[in-house]
Amino acid sequence: MSGSRQRYRAAHLHQPDGWRSPGYFEVDERGYIASVASGLPAGWDEAGVERLDGFVVPGMVNLHSHAHQRGLSGRSEPGADSTVEESFWTWRTRMYDFANRPSPDDFEALAAQAFLEMAKAGYTAVGEFHYLHNAPDGQSYSDPAEMSRRVVAAAELAGIGLTLLPVLYTRAGIGRPPAPEQRRFILSIDAYVSLVERLHALAAGHELVNIGLAPHSLRAVAVEELTGTISSLAATLPDAPIHIHVAEQVREVDECLAGLGERPGAWLLNHLDLNERWTFIHATHCDADERRGMSAAGVVAGLCPTTEGGLGDGIFPLGDYVAAGGVWGIGSDSDYRICVAEELRLLAFVQRLANASLFVLSSRGSGGTQLGRQLYDQAVEGGTRALRQPVGALVPGRRADFLVLDPDDPALVGHGPETALDGLVFSGTSSAVRDVFIGGRRVVSEGHHPAEDAIFERFRATIARLV
Ligand SMILES: [Zn+2]
Fold first, then answer.
1. In whole angstroms, what is the distance from residue 251 CA to residue 89 CA?
2. For the segment 112-138, what is each residue's pLDDT rounded down to a tens digit?
3. Spatial separation of the C-alpha atoms in residues 412 and 423, rounded to whole Å
4. Which listed residue (66, 130, 313, 333) is catalytic?
5. Is residue 278 classed as helix, strand or coil in its secondary structure?
6. Catalytic residue among 12, 68, 130, 282, which?
7. Is 333 a catalytic residue?
8. In 3D, which of 348, 355, 359, 282 has the Cα closest to residue 313?
9. What is the pLDDT of residue 211?
């Protein structure tokens, strides 16, 4: 991606076993890390090495996004005079109303703004759980991949890595046909298979893009579709990650118990061959047995703290899950607030509130035991597994997706490497993210993205038209 080999000297270079201060590394012509060293490598001329004076850390992975919902930011809250009992389900009605408005151009503008904000926040790859397939009247576009192509175009404008997760959505609930307001989401299983095939061909020309599978949930997909076509498709695409919404709401668990005789996590664990390719988005109300099953199978828990908080979903017991070996990552989901530090901070603080104690995560790996570092590293690890992109660590062979955290940001002043990620997670904002490199290319420089003004102007005009 970068076109030529680049050599860097990081003041502090994040490594799986700690830090190198300084750390030298080289990025090859394809945008992958070629070598890492503690001292100036033999044959290098210091004059040809770019200095990165800050904390250089792997880019964060955003494992779950619905980019069009960026347009709903602050516009989906109930009023004080609301006459119904407000819940996730009444919010969903407002979201559906908005989702049926954007044209392909509008959709690309909303997604570009969301992805731009992600890149500036330090997310270097995103899993877009994409279900807006059809035109507002429910008809297929002349190119059935029209809206998917817009997701790819938006990711390219922002320069972010993309795992496109085309969603299969065939019904309103267990045993219930699709509702009219879901007309943009609905695909037949055959149309879905063609779309996935088409997207694989499309992704072949994009270095930062891979394609996964996303049966929406046990609500929106029939079990025969999961055990039949989806399982067959998954077998023919061994590199594709598979994401599904699981147990975000208690009602969803109750409906599953009533309709299938099992809780959703249990049904998936008992009837499908689950493994590290699978991510359960939310998993909020999975019980202890289901969480044990997820850990044993290597399934990632896709936690979305801001959205789960905004919708009052509930609290996933992260401490117990990690102590049992569970892997997790974070998603910005509804995208109405995009900030890595805030997402991790909320995750930790909610655990502390729920337990009325100072939550500490069981440490994993040898990078350091401070909670900020553990939260950051575990989220990167789970996100990397969830998206199946070649990222997640600044070591040879991985894609050069990294951030330079600013040591002069108020949240990081006075911190050394041991506590820098505590500074970011517990007191930082995206202002601490100074530079962002994705695929070896500098996408954000000094907090700015070269396309940010153009993307925002288009977003502003789109919002003015849609709301
Ligand atoms: Zn979602």
1. 10
2. 999 999 999 999 999 999 999 999 999
3. 5
4. 333
5. strand
6. 282
7. yes
8. 282
9. 98
